[in-house]
Amino acid sequence: MKKTIKRTFRVSKYVIYKETLVDYKEHFWSFLGAFFGIGIIAFIQSHSLTETENIFLIGSFGASSVLIYGAIQSPLAQPRNLIGGHVLSAIVGVTVYKIVPDIIWLSAPLAVAFSIVLMQYTKTLHPPGGATALIAVSSTGKIPDLGYWYVISPVLSGCIILLLVALFFNNITPNRSYPSHSRFIRLLRKKHAHGHVHPNKIKK
């Protein structure tokens, strides 16, 4: 019994230590990734799309940034989940809005619930996707008028920008790897390692 208590205490102590450990380098790259990812989307909206009144920066992108820049090893943060979760949820949201456009107490829960199930079924679960579906049915102004164009822009186009920035900043140091378990990333690093031959191995 005492051994079990001591082991539980050691495990708890380790978990608390890991959770409270401050990794300044990791936080630095997370900050830069989120700054440039959201910054690029905001810049495009403020400088390029004002004439068309298009909405390019939606709230769910902020939640996605937490995952793809701050929790890059999470299964929910992988590219498949980022793109698939947002796009499928956007389709669900627009479809529900077209069917029940004026009944918010019904359209809002239907959009979120169906988007969750569809993401689960397609293995693209991405929590911010629920917000993307909700935005489609609850927003006023330009977004409802976009119809299924909402799926392409701002959702898909914004996700691509966030992903490209994530691929850069999340692989800029040897300690960061994104996507996790990616053959592409491992291949790049393998070639990079082969390109640096140790001086002692160079034949004279």
What does this protein look like?
The protein has 204 residues and is mostly helical. The chain has one domain. Helix content is 71%, strand content 0%. Helix 3 runs parallel beside helix 8, helix 4 runs antiparallel to helix 5 and helix 5 packs antiparallel against helix 6. The radius of gyration is 21 Å and the shape is globular. It starts with a helix and ends in a 9-residue tail after the last helix.
Describe how the helices and strands are arranged.
Elements: H1 2-20, H2 24-48, H3 60-70, H4 79-99, H5 104-121, H6 128-138, H7 142-146, H8 149-169, H9 183-195
Helix pairs in contact: 2-3, 2-8, 3-6, 3-8, 4-5, 4-6, 4-8, 5-6
Pfam families: TM_HPP
InterPro entries: HPP (IPR007065), TM_HPP (IPR058581)
Transmembrane segments: 28-49, 55-72, 148-169
Q: How big is the Rg?
A: 21 Å
Q: Mean pLDDT, rounded to whole units?
A: 84
Report the sheet with the most strands, covering strand number, pairing sense and barrel closure.
none
Shape, principal axes of CA atoms: globular
Give the number of helices. Answer: 9
Secondary structural class:
mainly alpha
Number of folding domains? 1
SSE string: HHHHHHHHH
Strand fraction equals under 5%
